[in-house]
Each structure stands twice: as structure tokens, then as C-alpha cells.
Amino acid sequence: MIKFENIGFKYNESGEEILHDVNFTLELGSYHFLTGPSGSGKTSLMNLMSLGNMPTEGQMTMFDKKISTLKREDLFELRQRIGVVFQDFRLLKHLSIFDNVALPLRIMGESDQNIKNHVSELLDWVGLEKHKNNLPPTLSGGQQQRVAIARAVIGRPKLLLADEPTGNLDDEIGFRLMGLFEQLNRMGTTIVIATHNSNIIEQFGHPCLILGNGTLHASQSSNAPIAQKIRNVF
Amino acid sequence: MFSKIKKLLQPKIKTLGNALAKNPLVIRMLKNLGFRDYDLPLNQSEDSKFLVLLIALMSFLSVLACSGTFALNDMAARWSSGLENKVTIEIAVETKDGHLLSNNTVRKETKKLAKGLKHSPMIKSLTVLSNAEIQELISPWIGDSLTLNDIPLPGLIAIELRNSNEKSLNTLKSDMLKLSKYARLETHHEWLGDLINFTRTLKNLSLFITLIIAGVTIIAITAGIRTRLAIHQKEVLLLHAMGATDHYIARQFQRHAMILSLKGGLIGAVLGLITTAVIIFLSAHSGTALIPTIEISGTGILLLCLIPIIASVIATITSRFTVLRNLSKIP
Hints:
Chain A has helices at 42-49, 72-79, 97-108, 112-125, 141-153, 171-186, 198-204, 226-233; strands spanning 2-9, 19-26, 31-35, 57-62, 65-66, 82-85, 159-163, 190-194, 208-212, 215-220. By secondary structure, chain A is α/β, with parallel strands linked by helices.
């Protein structure tokens, strides 16, 4: 279970408060969209959920562990349970597609044979097996996005966070990509997708966390009135 | 000629290199040794060359400073052991009250002393130095152009004692004065002590310089690693976000620093050893006894050869601690 209680966050002591009084609970295996206007704190909230930053206020519980009670060393293992798809992909340009996708497994200390098998299987799944020796800059935006997703899911994360994963893709590829996330969710992965795209939110009908002015405005469990809620916040 | 050989060998070496690089056994072996591509693009940094050059320079200076330390150590040991239990009795040409003795008197007094002391139980060996030997000893100061007849020469008896403790020296002195009132005992301790003190000071100075070089190397490596951490901050944060431990990230930097410092260390050490060999050669062939022969023992040479490894250990440890300290600031 992932639980945020009265979470507040600012980048430095004297800085502006980016998030305040954020409260929500995500059950394991759930699927949520996170939406809100630009500057509402979506990326900051995603950073908190990926344990990239620590809240300045409140209590954060990840996988039933209270983060404030953990030592810094304990966070490495927790981060390995989280897959992140960044908006700008963040692929390592000097590494081949294969090595980019293999990175989380190498960090986990998997054997070369396991890495080879899993990476080949996953690249085949995202349709990039024949590009495995290419470097990222030689691929199109959509292909790079798929590499980023493959890298995020290769370690079989319990939580997958994706920041605007369809932002650089045309509608058709975007919807196919969302299909990939649906598949992962059916396999038990908890998914949070930050997006501006209300079409996707409405079409896939998953609960939605709506951020506005640094706080959570609504946490909807059905998509029926969601369009109106989003419109209100935007 | 050289370009022909190069032209002939280059494609073959390239083919062999490519074949080895594709060989699964070689790939597995290299991976097991940790020679996988870096996760971070560390080996693509342009300033790597600067770090190699800097470490080469530091290694070069370290080899010279250590050579100096070892040579001085060796020299002091040679002087000490060469004069251990050895004393010299001199029949000086000039007496205490300022009178000059004739060559004849000097020779007579020397012979009398040698005869009287020859069978003393505390003396192991006794040699009366010939005029030729005395001239050889003083030739660095007066040159070879003067003949023996031009200057009065003292009488010298080189003695090796069984034991050079205070008691035997006192006994020898009193026996000597009984045999000749012109005799003087030279134990070498005074001037040898000064010389050894001077050598020790030089040795300490060399050690101090070596420490400064090591310090400068550590500072330069720390700065280099910090710069790389700043350049590759995005990639480091990505690995961190994926759950890479600080040690996983630090290993990449320390391996990078180790390879660069080994490269630089080897270049510097080879140049330093060549320079040291040239200095040793020149000292041995200087043709004057005033410049002592510089020698470095086998152990000393072995230690000099270890300098690249020491440099690489320093670089590895420094980079590890620099990276770990910087990463600890990330939540």
C-alpha cells in the first residue's frame, strides 16, 4: 500500500511550497491517472513517489513501510521496486538499447544469462528486438519511449510511474502504449500515470488524482464526472 | 622502414583485435574482470587526457624523489658500514706546537707505530698506506699534476678493530701515544656523523616532497572526480532513481580513476626510471671522486616500479571516497 498523509514539499527551506496537504492512498495493483495543470506539482509528486525526493512535511508510506523511519540505505532496495518512465526518456546515449534496458537488472546484480533472456524477451514485446544494438539517438521518439518503458518494467516493479508517457507520441501509438500499461496492471503492477490528456483518462476509465495549486483537489474512483472535475481544476 | 612495418602489422593487429573483441570467451573474461562499458559515459570525457598527464607528471616526480631517498639511504649505509670498526692513525706533518716533521721522521714514526701495534689483541688488521695510496686519496683536492716530492705527506695507518667500543678506543689511544707522541687517532665518527645527518636531512626532504606530490595528486583527483560528478549529474541521478547503491555508482568512478592513473603512472614511472638510470650512469662515469657514485638497491628499484600501482591505489581510494561523500548528500 502507498499512503500519503498531509504531505508537504519544498525544494529548499526558504523556497516556495510546491505541495501541501496532499492525502491519498493507492492499493497495490491499482491503476491511477494523475492530472492537473502545468505547475500544479505533478512532477514533484511523482518524484516523491519514486523516492527521488523526501517530503518536508507529513508521513509517506511506501509498500507498507513508513519512509521517515527508514535509513537511507534501506531506500535503495525500495527504489528497485519502482519503475519510472520519464517524460524526457533519460536514456543513456552512449549505451546500446540492450544495455539501456538491462540497466535495472545490472543494478540488482542479476546474472548475465538472466539479463540476456529477460532483455531480449522484453525488447521483443515492445517490438525493438532488431534494434537492440543501436544507440538511442538513432531511434525515433516513439521507439525511444518504448525503450524507456521496457527499462522501467524490466525489473518487474511493484509500482510503475510514468510522467506524460504519451506526450511525444501520436494518438495511435499513444493508445497502443496505454495498452501495454493495461497489460502490466493486469499482471499486478500498481500504475500511476501523470498526463494532461483527458481523452486517455476518459477512455481508460481509471481513478484519477487531480492536482491543483500544489494540493490534491480530488481523488475519483470512477470516471463518470471526471471530465467536469478536470475542467474545474484547469 | 618503421612505416613499412607499421603498414604491414596494423591491419593484422586490427583484425586480431576485432576477432578477440567478438570472441564470447574473451567477452565473458573481460566482463568477469569488470571491463564492461561504463553505465556512465566517463571514458568519453575530454579531460581524461589532462588527468593522465597530471598523474604521469606526479609519478615522474615521485620516482625522482624516491630515487633520491633510496640513493641517499644506500649512500649513508655504505659510508657507515664501510667505516664500521675502522680507525686511522695519522702521523701529521705538523706537530701540535707548529713544527714541521721531515718525510724521513714521518716514515720512521709510522713504521714504529705499525710494528708496535701489529700484535695488539684488539686489532683485527693493520695497513700502512703507501705514498701512492695517500696521493690517490688527496688527488681530488690537489690534482694529479703535483709530484710527491712537492708536498710533505702524513703517515697513515688504517686499522680495523675487533670491536670499536669506547674502552678499546681508549686503550688504542694510550698504546699509540706510548709509541709515538706525534700520533693522532681519527675515529671518523665526528665527520661521518655530520655527513650522515646531512644525508638524513636530504632523505627526509625527499620524503616530504614525495608526500607533497601524493597530496597534490589526491587534490587533483578529487577535483577531477567532482567535475565528472557535476558533468554526469543527470546520469548519476538516473542510476540513483533506479535503486543503484552509492557503492555501485562509486565503483564506476573508481574503476575509471584506476585505469587513468595506471596509464599516467606507467608513463611517468618509465620516464622517471629512465631519468634515474641516466643520473646513475653519469655519477658512475663522472671521473671525479668528489661526486659520490649513486646506487639504488634491487629492493629500491622494485619499489620504484610499484609507484604506478601505488598511484592507482591512491586514485581509486580517493575517487571512491569523493563519490561516496558527494552521493551521501542525495536523499
